[in-house]
Amino acid sequence: MNIKEVITSFNMNSTVVSYIDAHSFPEEDKLYFPSVSKPTCIGAYSVSPFESFERNVSRMRFIDIPPSYRFPLNLRNPNRQVEPLKPPQERIDNMLIFIESMWQKLLRKDDTRLVVNADVVCTKEVLELIMFAPFEYKYGWTLGVSRFRKTIYICVLDRNQPDNFDQDNLRRVMQEDWLKNLRKQCLSDNGKGKPNKRDVSDENSRCNAAFSFELNGQHILFDSPVIAEFDPNKFSTQSYAWSDLQLRVDNMTRNEWAVHNRTESIKWWIRSFLIGMDHIYVANRDDNAFVRSIKRTPIQDLYRDSDETKPFYSTHFLKRFLSCITQVMGEIDNPSTVYTFEYDAKLGKVTHRGLEGRNQHTFVADWFRLMLDDRLEDAHELQRMNN
Questions:
Q1: How deeply is 220 buried, as exposed, middle or buried, from its count of CB atoms within 10 A (0-12, 13-18, 19+)?
Q2: 47-51, 67-71, 143-147, 307-311: which range is least confident on average?
Q3: The domain containing residue 65 runs over which residues?
Q4: Which of 23, 89, 178, 352 has its CA 20 to 30 A from that of 324?
């Protein structure tokens, strides 16, 4: 083994502290916003209750605010015990299947092979975790990163779980349960009918949309769960826009507002920013879990109520984190090799470690690698037909 191989092996197996610090807020970051394009929706698909890909949008939900006479809305469910929700993990598998289903649009020829036409492929959950890291001091996470044919793939490997007896967590669990009950009353299957009455087994089913945007010269491709809203100003085949429905207390104290603005408010902005929403709907509840009103809230109001510099720091940190990943991955070209990037929320530090070859964290499926080779002949045939 020569010296280069020894150094490479050492770097692969050692835990390295990266140069980025999430809790550092450089003055220059608030002077300008990073170069970023508005997200473009490429397409959508459904996800079954069992997390499987469905090549349709039949599970799309639409915001359908009830008429005034139905208010206040009761968010309590006396017939069911409140338990911590286990949100479905946004696996990258379905995104890879979507890429295959849209191969003519999302793959391109590079010399004698096909590659994905993106620098980064991930889920929205990955981007949200990174962008909120500057303001996260309690719960860390670990990402898995692979590089194959010039594209970097990122997935969530682990998220630190809160203590079930922590008071903040108990409030969060109750809030999530109330939000779920609110959405049952305010979402419909077509945006024009009664709220959906899907049973509990169907709660994890959803519609995902795929988006792309440019950040600091990097082309990022990701998917995200979406909620739609009919848009009377749109006359194309897609007569709807993306929106969201969130919940907050309507009589918060000054301190409670401060906490809300540095946590939930910035999270709502990040979600909206990533998929290009202009507004969301915010339901205001009282202490007895009754919603008295639902307000259409412009995205600008979310960070105006908070701190106008937070979106700057958040987006700059995403730029730095992706740049760090790009440098660490270098010229690696192996879908089985995984680098783990672990975020320590208390310290604001990120460490990375390489696992060479197939390992317990390998997540880019073999079928996807084979598909890129198989579709090459299809691309040749399509080119012959076009000529």
A1: buried
A2: 307-311
A3: 19-386
A4: 89
